[in-house]
Amino acid sequence: MAEDTSHFVYIVRCSDGTLYTGYTTDVERRVAQHNAGTGAKYTRGRRPVRLVYQEAHATVSEAMQREYAIKQWRRQRKEQLFA
Asked: 7-81 domain in CATH 3.40.1440.10?
């Protein structure tokens, strides 16, 4: 992939109140996939989901490293990103 393509880390809030963090190149499409039941297995039974946070990165590597880092955080710290 070209480095000028935007890569995104996003967080959605599921219908049960839990948070899901992911990576994508198209946030709108990915959220629609989650809500259609074709996204991550975790979100399939927790629909609908609502986008609560997104951040852009220049490279896939940066975005995936950030996704991993955020996934290691406790819920309270994630909530501070979009409070």
From this structure: yes
